[in-house]
Sequence to fold (214 residues):
Amino acid sequence: MTLISRRNLMLAAAVGAAAALTAGALIASSADASVQTGAPAPAFAVVDTKGATRTLQEFAGRTVVLEWTNRDCPFVRKHYNSGNMQALQREATAAGVVWLSVISSAPGQQGYLSAADADANVHSAHAAPTAVLLDPTGAMGHAYGARNTPHMYIISGEGRLVYQGAIDDRPSANPTSLEGARNYVRAALADIRAGRPVATPETTPYGCTVKYSG
Fold:
């Protein structure tokens, strides 16, 4: 085998490995949702970064957005480094929506943060959630079937799950993919404000797998 042939084989192997790694990051996105869209959203009682226990019941009557996040995930970084996620958070909360960022990474896993580190991350990223919920046991994440970061859910004021899935229609970690993207969360919130049924209530999420324990 010539040196050029060996180099070509090595290059092909490297490309294949990179493709497999990307597919691995996305593999969980094809899993079925754990909660049926339109059904009551699972109740939760999770401590936030301030030490307060936050429950779904306390937000009764208000629209709630749940954002599963992992600051080290390249798909999450795409939305935060560009300011896309922060803009959506501010737009939603200004309209009275409750925005809860959820960290379900287990201790020792990628994306795990202590309360202090999570607050520092919010500050450095200029993020604007209502609260950051710490779910290191994964109980809340498993209850909702959260499999990716970001994985988005919207709960109506009546406590029903009216949207779940991807943040937008561009399943890529490349920031340039944001240009012209259709943001499903923004569109769903607009439908809710207008008193309309959510036109696209469920999509396939994309991103890194949630780093649960085990």
